[in-house]
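Lab intake sheet, docking and co-folding queue.

SAMPLE TYPE: protein with bound small molecule
LIGAND NAME: S-adenosylmethionine
LIGAND FORMAT: SMILES
REQUESTED OUTPUT: full 3D complex as structure tokens
PRIORITY: normal
SUBMITTED BY: R.K., bench team

The fields below were copied directly from the construct record.
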Amino acid sequence: MQLKQALTEAVARLTANNVPSPRMNAELLLMFTLGCDRAYLYAHTERDLTADETSRYQSTLSERARGVPAQYITGHQEFWGMDLIVTPAVLIPRPETEHVIETVLELADEERRVGQGCPSNIIRIIDVGTGSGCIALALARELPQAEIHAIDASTAALEIARVNAARHQLEGHIHFHEADLLTGFEENSFDFIVSNPPYVGESEVDEVQLEVRKFEPHSAVFAGPTGVEVIARLIPQARASLRPGGWLVMEISGTIAEDVKRLLRNWKDVVVRADLQSIPRVVQARNPVA
Ligand SMILES: C[S@@+](CC[C@H](N)C(=O)[O-])C[C@H]1O[C@@H](n2cnc3c(N)ncnc32)[C@H](O)[C@@H]1O
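RESULT FIELD (auto-filled):
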């Protein structure tokens, strides 16, 4: 079968199975099967697929048609310009999480300019719930002088985060820990506590995309009945672990923004930033013990 016919049939199959953006998915999976880029697909529309290529392409389409996210089929997702390995053990990094990185970089820059950084000038940062390692890796890349720690409660997620760190030559720069949030971490020691914690409530389960519910790790997405349960445990721990004047930066959603602001009522300089869709997405707050 020729490449263009394979693509046309794939688009029809994905459309029939209600897969969003069927052409984009059909092309992505064909690029993955052939190990080529989009330019190659467009330049070789009459190339015949081998029997092996056809069978591998059909099996990726079957997976996608039953709802498996394309990133779990290809094993890759881009974040902050880095190609990351993803498996069903980790949440697929989302573009909106890049706002967390932007916020930390802005605040770190401001601290440097006004001279409020830590006395040793080595910023200590911890990423709580690192998953694929996307936040820790992006910060390690942008802040080569910082001391970066990353924790997760999931052994399987930490394995993927370590693989990603090694792929980007950052393994010597990030200290990985298996832990329940900040339990057991030193008090008064971090300049930044950064997290994209689970923040969806079990009560919102029907509003969550079926693909997310079925295929992404439950413990990465859902926090408990209301969605603030993990954040409510993290905030007092963060207050103890931050140095005076240190920053907590967390990804949140519009649903929990008001609850999170209430939980941070005794902190300083609390600001909620919106994402490109004007949805409250990142909260920043300063440890008031200054
Ligand atoms: C929303 S995912 C974020 C993953 C990654 N940081 C990202 O932005 O794509 C939340 C992560 O927190 C981890 N997690 C959930 N509960 C935790 C806990 N009590 N202690 C440590 N990590 C936890 C999950 O395993 C998951 O990897």
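REVIEWER NOTE: The first strand starts at residue 76 and ends at 79.
SIGN-OFF: pending second check by T.M.
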